[in-house]
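Need tokens for this chain, all 610 residues.
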Amino acid sequence: MLSDPLKTVLLPLSAVDSFPQAPMLFSQIREYLWGERITHFQTNLSLPPDAEPGGQIYVTFYQPEIDPLRWGTYYDDLRSCMGRILDRLRRHRSFPIFDPLQTRLLLEYATAMQSVSDSSLLTDENLGPFRFEPGITGLSFRFMEKRYFYMPTEAYTRSHMTLTQAARYLARRVGFRAKNTAAAMDFLRKEISDVHLLQSRSFVSHGTECLELYRGYPESVDSSPAAIECSFFAGVEWLLRNQSANGKFLYFYDASTDSTADFQHPDKPDYYNMLRHSGGTITLLRAHELCSKQNYVEAARRSIEFMLQESRTYVRAGEIARYVIDNEKAKLGGTGLALVALMHFHRLTGDSTYMPYCEEMIRHLLSQICADGEFLGYYIHPHFNNGRPLEEVGEEVKRKLFSFYYPGEALLGIALYDRYAPGDHDQKAEIRAAGRKALDFLLRERPQKYPELFLTLPSDSWLMQAIEEWWHHPEMRDPAAAEFVYSDADRMIDHLYQPHNSPYRDYPGHFFYHYGQHALPDGARAEGLMAAYYLARQEGKRELAQRYLGYCRLIAKGLMRTYNSEAAMYAAKVPAKAVGSFRFKLTRQWVRVDSIQHTACFFARLLPHI
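Here are the structure tokens for all 610 residues:
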């Protein structure tokens, strides 16, 4: 068994002594640039001894809605190199538009440079001497006899997560015409010379403060319960600020470019996903559960009304059934999560306005359970049956339409309906019988039928939550179901970076498929581990529950590194638009409604227990 993270001392956030003179240096820079004009930059300070002699030092100006202004030079002594940099910046044509009250200064200097004998050895997947770790290592190289520097913080400020993304950027930067990703990597591996991996230290101004950075963001990350609670409500407020009058949420936002074009659908500016919409609705209701603010209920009501507009009805066995339509598809999970949202609304408000819709959705979901217990992944799919409803399908079509995630989402909706919806004994018994059949298929048949879908890092958190929810009813307490939850939770922990096995000090609390892979922040899997905690509590397994809670706390600390605080958003195109949200990755500046939803819902269920 792995060690309990609560009994492990976390690695210190700073691997080297801090730079206590940085605030004074920033003051001197501001005075020289915007104070009474001084002929020459003067300072009696010096950089710490970890500064690489002959290495590069950069100063960058960041101001909302203005392109950054940046200059660097080699480091000899601090006064000389800063004088050269600041004189170039002050003479730049865009310098006058920078407001000293809004401008944030970034100082970064190289601390180590390691020669790479063959650039084809560079990797971002394997640990070793030639590992490119975004935000931690940078690159120095020659191209056409000119030396270029890609400083470590650029991965964060330019929203790069992989070596490939850095290669595409660098190819454009030097004027190399790379037609595709492969050509960009060929450029990096074949066209450049005299390559070095470099490390740096960096600092950014924030009001009257000077903050040290790690991987590009302020490394003093507060993960106390109070900070987690604050970030949770900030995430909810971000959803509120970005909810349209018709109830839709802003689906995607790239803070580095101020773009709302979804990275997966760049040619569909209006793309929207109804499953993630329902997730946003659930988040608002979780917030109401914690603080009973009426505006959360009203926002949830608007989002529900939009969701219902995107649903359709049909007659089945003489009764009305309802499904959610999503990009011309009626996904099992779309209706499942819609029912989850509606049942949480009823549970938390006591308002039965939407119960008729819930009854229609439960009919549809139950009808999607085949004779052998397998859920049909889609009721309508444009590529099958000419886009008409799929009533009876063969094994080949079932396999093509199978979804690993949708059954868990559907079962969670069914379980919540069983627990909270009014209904007679016979109806509830029928629901539970159908649920047991579907659950039995998922636990016993699915691993044999679809073994290729099971990953080393478990991902069926919706099913884990459904089992936890249904455990409230004695008829649904299948030991095999509990074992599934605990087994998946333990395998998640086995694929979790922890203080004792993390190659970088901000990796603890993040997942990996294979050890050494980039840290994978994942609020969705965290919700699954949270369900394991709640289930262990229900079963009276106190020691197991505390173990899971400890890992949930560790994950929460990791997820706080993806929180877009005001201090961390210095490089965002429009910082105010990003503040309060949660990023996909440590250095990627992408925000999507579900990157907020999963993290916020995890925090909401964690907070009462920390």
